[in-house]
Amino acid sequence: MKSSLSEVKMVNLPRIEDPRGNLSFIEEENHIPFKIERTYWIYDVPGGQVRGGHAFKEQQELIVALSGSFDVLVDDGKEQKKYSLNRSYYGLYIPAGLWRQMNNFSTNSLAMVLSSTHFSEVDYIRDYSDFLRLTEL
Ligand code: TYD
Predict the structure, then answer these.
(1) Model-level pTM?
(2) Residues 2 and 135 sit within 8 Å (Cβ to Cβ)
(3) Which residue CA neighbors atom 20 of ligand 1 most closely?
(4) Å from CA of 120 to ligand 1 middle
(5) What 3-state class would DSSP assign to 60?
(6) What is the pLDDT of residues 71-108, one digit of tens each?
(7) pLDDT one-digit tens code per residue, 28-56
(8) Which residues are tagged catalytic?
């Protein structure tokens, strides 16, 4: 399992600006390199809470701050990088095999995650030392 931070991409999603209100959209295998098997969202996050804090063996994902803002920390076992998401027309693409954590949620923020897989607990690596071992294989 080897993934590099260089594979993480901030995707600039289409933006249809309109005096009636703006519109953005995402098409699978166009703006993101995978088929969407699942969508979930994280909301009502109390101040100071941290979500994520794990890696996936297979799941690729795109994270969008539909509302408000939060930070996503990605880590390939060697380096870490922080992305601040605060616009609904940016999506952060994260390939499988990277540790990631989300924090610094603003009040009423809404994090949408598009996933390439159905939910499967066995796809999670929840222990950081296991993650480091796997990155060395
Ligand atoms: P988890 O992915 O660990 O949350 P986070 O990484 O945001 O901190 O998921 C929390 C719980 O929700 C865990 O018991 C698994 C469950 N869950 C599902 O049942 N289906 C899903 O699609 C997701 C993402 C989580």
Answers:
(1) 0.96
(2) yes
(3) 119
(4) 9
(5) coil
(6) 999 999 999 999 999 999 999 999 999 999 999 999 99
(7) 999 999 999 999 999 999 999 999 999 99
(8) 54
